[in-house]
Design a protein that fits this description.
By secondary structure, the protein is mostly helical. The chain has 14 helices and 3 strands. Belongs to the SEDS family. FtsW subfamily.
Length: 398
């Protein structure tokens, strides 16, 4: 009876631990990276072979991005919050400069002009802009929070900078990324305490703007019309077949059939379908559970932190990762028209993976500074040192 009663108490104690957010982020990220690497290896091998390259070409490219991203996560998670406050404007300004380079000399993929080449590698500056905008809004909105009650103070400087960044992305016709940036901005302003009446006006203007942007491209009109009429595109149809053929436990690692030229972007936008095909319903639920852990961790950081910058920037970064994942999965499940956004921390793509890991590093830095977290980390470090001292061989007496 005593042992049974102790279990709920220990679970509650673990949940209340100041390091819970930190470990949730680490565990969830590890799950997504492991599954992502396995499925990228499986799905990218076919495309690599078709181009006359080694079957491991796409996978090795992803591994290189993973190493860089993990380095960014490791370093970033150990940097103090004040460092992120200082560097926030420079990250945003740098991304804006690179977005300008995209418009001048960049190249298009799938109709979106969003990439540039640097030293032989492809770079998507809009991924840097997601992190830069979240951090920048955290700085300016926390600084001017008490003045966010009229349109002028809302627009200057946060609103104007957000409009400029989103405008640069839309100039390259990357509407999917622009929508994720809009979510980042909306969540940042909401957490900062902007009155709800302004969101109604912004929502109306946004709806009109999106409608005009959709009408500006025939391909967008066709995709949305087909989706609204229930006419699945080739990509969505084969994505559904992939999920259906996976059943409960999947066909097994590397055993996807749709990756053999039937499902476009099987290692990127539609990687969730390949996960379902190879690992079944169980595999897709694991992915959903990992994103749920990230959401819980971010919620804890926002609610427990006493630093308004951490609350705003943390919520914005969390919204970027979780909402983008939801959009990607909704497209695969035919719940939304094709938007062309990758599955964070899972899909192939160096820029997306590196910046997603860097963003998780920022969140882990915030988690390490939750009330009680520095003391808990110091205590656990001292426990490890004492354990190593006990295990180390003792000197023999002379």
């Amino acid at each position: 009876m005593t042992a049974t009663a102790a279990r709920p108490e220990s679970a509650v104690t673990a949940w209340r631990s100041p390091l819970t957010s930190y470990y949730l982020l680490a565990f969830a990220t590890g799950i997504l990276l492991i599954v992502g690497l396995a499925v990228v290896l499986s799905s990218s091998s076919v495309a690599s072979i078709r181009t006359g390259s080694s079957a491991y070409t796409g996978f090795l490219t992803q591994v290189v991005a993973l190493v860089v991203g993990l380095a960014a996560l490791t370093v970033g998670s150990r940097l103090p919050v004040k460092f992120w406050k200082r560097i926030a404007p420079w990250v945003l300004y740098g991304s804006m400069a690179l977005l300008g380079v995209v418009l001048a000399t960049g190249y298009a993929v799938g109709g979106n002009k969003a990439w540039i080449r640097i030293a032989g590698f492809s770079l998507q500056p809009s991924e840097i802009a997601k992190l830069g905008l979240a951090l920048y809004l955290g700085v300016v909105l926390s600084r001017f929070r008490k003045r966010l009650t009229n349109p002028k103070d809302i627009m200057v400087p946060g609103g104007i900078m957000a409009i400029v960044v989103i405008g640069l992305v839309l100039a390259g016709k990357d509407m999917g990324t622009a929508m994720i940036l809009m979510v980042v901005v909306g969540v940042a302003f909401w957490v900062a305490g902007v009155p709800a009446r302004f969101f109604g006006l912004a929502g109306l203007l946004l709806a009109v703007g999106l409608f005009l942007l959709v009408l500006d491209a025939d391909s967008r009109v066709a995709r949305i019309t087909d989706w609204a009429n229930g006419d699945s595109s080739w990509q969505q149809l084969h994505g559904t077949w992939a999920l259906a053929s996976g059943g409960l436990w999947g066909l097994g690692p590397g055993m996807s059939r749709e990756k053999w030229g039937w499902l476009p972007a099987s290692d990127n936008d539609y990687i969730f379908a390949i996960i379902g095909e190879e690992f079944g319903l169980f595999g897709t639920l694991v992915i959903l559970g990992a994103y749920a852990m990230i959401l819980i961790a971010v919620t804890r950081i926002v609610l427990r932190s006493t630093d308004l910058f951490v609350q705003i920037a943390g919520a914005a970064i969390g919204a970027w990762i979780v909402v983008q994942a939801c959009v990607n999965i909704a497209v695969v499940l035919e719940l939304a028209p094709v938007t062309g956004v990758p599955l964070p921390l899972v899909s192939s793509g160096g820029s997306s993976l590196i910046m997603s890991l860097a963003a998780v590093g920022v969140l882990m830095s915030f988690a390490r500074n939750e009330p009680g977290a520095p003391e808990a980390l110091a205590a656990r470090t001292s426990v490890v040192r004492r354990s190593l001292a006990v295990l180390s061989p003792r000197r023999r007496r002379g």
